[in-house]
Amino acid sequence: xxxxxxxVGATGAVGVELMNVLAGRDFPYRSLKLLASRxxxxxxxxxxxxxxxxxxxxEESFKDVDIALFSAGGSISKKFGPLAAEQGSIVIDNSSAFxxxxxxxxxxxxxxxxxxxxxxxxxxxxxxxxxxxCSTIICLMAVTPLHRYAxxxxxxxxxxxxxxxAGAAAMAELELQTREVLEGRKPTCxxxxxxxxxxxxxxxxxxxxxxxxxxxxxxxxxxKKIWNDPEVKVTxxxxxVPIMRAHSESINLQFQNPLNENTAREILGKADGxxxxxxxxxxxxxxxxxxxxxxxxxxxxxRQDISQEGxxxxxxxxxxxxxxxxxxxxxxxxxxxxx
Length: 339
Ligand code: A2P
Hints:
The chain has 339 residues and is α/β, with parallel strands linked by helices. The protein has 9 helices and 15 strands. It folds into 2 domains: 4-132 and 327-338, 3-Layer(aba) Sandwich (Rossmann fold), CATH 3.40.50; 135-322, Dihydrodipicolinate Reductase, domain 2 (2-Layer Sandwich), CATH 3.30.360.10.
């Protein structure tokens, strides 16, 4: 029978979706343990005809847990991830805590599943596997099929990121602020320091000495690791927009080998986990609303970059659900590869 599974952060935006995805894909767990903070301990949750009680996360939580899905923030992962791995659990971590560590595979199953080939459930040996940043996942789902064909030499990305990346409380704040602004009241700013509804702002992660914020540097560094290509040039600008749960990205590519837009459209049309929405006549292209709660990353605006000579440049626009493919779905797909 299947593995024993624990969800760490089961009450959060990603935690709840992890459970939806496990159920939706008939993941064959033998037992499920739901872990969160003391605030949630004791709460009852009905899931797949079974009543669960949320337990408080502690050092003893991982005894007999085969797969631990972590989504309770970086500090919880840092503290409990290695501990769970030492106790024999395979940790699939949604935070940025271990992503750039040597020896920790950083995996998008459609892109680089080989990176985790040495980790086996039946060995009963613990391990850490990192889920990439949500913007990186959505970007590389759209770009890797083209990279395989023509090798990307430089990528310029601009993101339009949803509230969900900052957790359930940020989504609630966007909803509350929208109501408040429509009613002529002053918007409540707890999660972000400024008005979010009817506004947009540079990503809330801290800005480094080089002028890039942490989210942007995650896209740069994680792309190099996932593609195993330290030479690829990547630059990013990450922006929060008042959208609930799907990220959008404008992506400009420069290739080493020629790739024309028709071939690109064909390649993306056959790529796993990607749908092409690219109807110029109807001006119909991907939107964050239509990918919300969906698995696939939508790609459109596929066009030759007219600023580059010949067929060496392309522009794309991609949208993907941040909680699903950007987090929960990707983590469950990793778990499926362990089975
Ligand atoms: P809780 O609801 O008990 O606070 P989100 O990303 O949506 O903000 O969710 C964060 C998740 O991480 C929640 O499930 C939250 O549980 C959990 N979490 C936060 N702090 C802790 C902690 N100290 N121990 C265990 N889980 C935590």
